[in-house]
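Let's practice the habit of predicting before peeking. Look at the sequence and jot down your guess about where helices and strands might fall. Then scroll down.
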Amino acid sequence: MTDENLPEFIRALLVPSAYEHETPDIRLVQTHISYVILAGDYVYKFKKPVDFGFLDFTTLEKRQYCCRQELRLNRRLSPEIYLDLVAVKRSNGAFHLDGEGETIEYGVKMARMPEERMMVNVINAGLLDRKHIDSLVDILVPFYRQAEHNEEIDRFGKADAVSVNILENFDQTHGFVGGEALSKDQFDVISDYARHFLTREEVFEQRISEGKIRDCHGDLYSANICLADKVYIYDCIEFNQRFRYCDVASDMAFLAMDLDFHGLADLSVYLIERFVGSSQDGSLINVLDFYKCYRAYVRGKIGLFTANDPAVEEEVRKSCMTDAANYFRLAMKYAAG
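Done guessing? Here is the structure:
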């Protein structure tokens, strides 16, 4: 994506003079929903004005609200990272952060974590081990135990509520079936498996009765974890409660699936064994593959969305398409047992 295609305020924030702190390096990273600017010791995250149905960032007010939610919710696990709400101001035709002028955008200011300690980079370096998994479990078990839990949240654990998220994925990827990442056979097998599992209402009711539906993280995988001086877990779902109000098993299945995706099946098994043992959550196993399949399919879908965003560069498009194909193959594996 050339600079000319970027929003004007993003272009303005890619120069050192836009900041009052030192910026020895400035780099822009894009997702399908965000512009993320790495600037010295800080990260500035801005939401794209997009509407995917499951999220709507199309107005400044909605983006401001979601930024505030992002701060509040992520401070549950990583208060050291989530620093403040920032406003992009415009005065005399120039853009700057906070201060005087017309507010044209809101964002979240975060402390920048060491990139080499990001969990995905630790994995790629071949350094992830059981001690890291133990540290994660030691944080996650009390987090879920203390996470909000009430009758309203319980409703999101019912089979019909879970089906909204599951079936939405199939609706949103139907136009990609038969393309380079998702075959018709994969789509049919995965969707048939999911629909059949959703008829097992008693399985979902058991999870509800055991108090396993909580205000969770919603996006728990290696891209959102840093293994630095301590474990930092960040970037939870703030834009839609139905992705965050879920079975604890859905969160843990995401992390386990991610380890499978990176070829670390032994650590994936160890993660679940340690979590089940520490939390005494034996029935998690009954829904594990179902939620693993769901999470793999979601990652494949996001890969398709990003690859088909005209704003992303060709190299990013190819990488996202490759990852999407691998995620759909993994979902197929879970669906096929």
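How did you do? Strands lie at 26-30, 34-39, 42-47, 82-91, 94-97, 102-111, 213-215, 225-227, 231-233, 245-247.
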